[in-house]
Write a structure and sequence with these properties.
Helix content: 40-55%
Number of helices: 7
Oligomer: single chain
Shape: elongated
Strand content: 15-25%
Strand order of the largest sheet: 1-10-13-12-11-14
Radius of gyration: 36 Å
């Protein structure tokens, strides 16, 4: 009787051991945290030359005033928040205007640049009318001579304007290049612990992107100005030759007409060159209107009147996309799951017996030491694999959740340790 009882106990023990070594997986449950993913609208870099209102109108020996571009990287330079169109908790759409910054003198600069352009275009009409007039009035030769003189005077002034603009553009390109190089060096050698007042890496990246965009615009302006110079020089030479013919009184109406046609062509070139300062001022003004890069919910916004450094956050938006969750799996847990496994997500704020579906979208390929603040229900978790899940809907950012994974494999052993 005793032997039979011992045999029964031995069989039960053996079956228990066999069952412990191969137990079907009913799912792996881990504790994770919802990732707080945000998009930031930053303060823009505004730097543009001030347009001289005297350029193109009579003789002007004074240089065009220019705005002082901020010191290297624009550090210390700020912009003022002029208006805010959203508040914390608002839902915004991609492309929606969320704030504006004070444009300063940019509107005045644009108005003056457009006035210069209008004057240059008007000159084309004046010369066209003069050409038509030569068919009817031979006695207007003297008047046409004066018009040619005026055109030469104004075109000479325009030639000086283009030369000054080209010089300023090259100077600006040198400054922007120096700033870009220093910014890239600073970002590449960013200290582990930034001293007080030093811009963040995100601010440096934003400044670098804006500097590169500025260099692109400046290079385009240099190309246009450089192309206009030889044409202006050639045209002025032709106009002066025509003036000498008129001074000699040997020119005929046909000669006058030909010279006026040359002047008209020059005026067309000058009008095209006048587009350069308009485009520069227009581009800078466009930067003063800040728009949402994505659709989402506003979680932080600056106040009207705030003075912000270049690249500083103005509006922070949490995108309206399914949430991501990170968790750490022990090697034993990781051995039971596969990428694309379906998961059930449960938070303590959800109604009882409810959950949100999701997918295991990424699983690390090496066991590492997880961060000390990582959410986990594992005791003595020394090495683990990081996993990322995507939920079917948005979840509160930063909160812990329990994630149950529909495992794709069976558990290998119940007594596996994690070390």
């Amino acid at each position: 009787m005793i032997r039979r009882a011992a045999l029964v106990i031995a069989l039960i023990t053996a079956f228990a051991l066999l069952a412990g070594c191969s137990t079907p997986s009913s799912g792996v449950t881990v504790t994770g945290e919802v990732v707080d993913s945000t998009e930031v609208v930053t303060a823009p870099l505004l730097a543009v030359a001030v347009v001289n209102p005297n350029v193109g109108f009579g003789d002007s020996t004074e240089s065009a005033p220019t705005s002082d571009v901020a010191s290297v990287l624009g550090l210390g330079s700020t912009v003022r928040i002029a208006s805010v169109a959203v508040a914390e908790g608002d839902t915004v759409s991609a492309g929606q205007v969320v704030a504006t910054v004070d444009p300063g003198t940019l509107p005045a600069q644009l108005a003056v640049a457009k006035a210069d352009q209008a004057a240059a275009k008007a000159q084309i009409g004046v010369l066209a009318a003069a050409i038509d007039d030569t068919y009817d009035k031979a006695q207007t030769v003297a008047e046409n001579k004066q018009k040619v003189d005026d055109a030469i005077k104004k075109l000479t002034a325009m030639q000086g304007k283009v030369a000054k603009a080209l010089k300023q553009l090259k100077k600006t390109r040198s400054q922007l290049t120096a700033k870009l190089n220093q910014a890239e060096q600073l970002l590449a050698n960013y200290p582990p612990v930034a001293p007080p007042g030093m811009p963040t890496q995100e601010e440096l990246k934003a400044a670098i992107a804006q500097l590169k965009a500025g260099l692109t615009k400046v290079n385009a302006g240099i190309k246009q100005a450089t192309a206009a110079q030889p044409k202006l020089k050639k045209g002025l030479k032709q106009a002066r030759q025509g003036r000498r013919k008129l001074n000699d009184a040997a020119a005929t109406i046909v000669d006058v007409r030909a010279q006026l046609q040359d002047a008209k062509e020059l005026a067309t070139i000058a009008a095209a060159a006048a587009q350069i300062p308009v485009d520069l001022a227009d581009a800078q003004l466009a930067l003063t209107e800040l728009t949402a890069p994505v659709t989402g919910v506003v979680i932080d916004v600056a106040q009207v009147g705030d003075q912000l450094g270049i690249g500083a956050p103005v509006v922070t938006i949490r995108p309206d996309v399914p949430s991501r969750i990170t968790a750490w799996l022990s090697p034993a847990q990781a051995a039971q799951v596969c990428t694309d496994d379906t998961v059930a997500i449960v938070g303590d704020w959800m109604p009882e017996a409810s959950s949100v579906s999701g997918t295991l979208t990424r699983l690390g390929d090496a066991s590492v030491y997880p961060p000390s603040d990582a959410a986990t229900d594992e005791i003595h978790l020394t090495r683990a694999l990081e996993a990322e899940f995507t939920s079917s809907e948005q979840l509160p950012a930063g909160v812990p959740v329990d994630v149950t994974i529909d495992g794709c494999r069976e558990a290998t052993a119940t007594n596996e340790t994690n070390g």
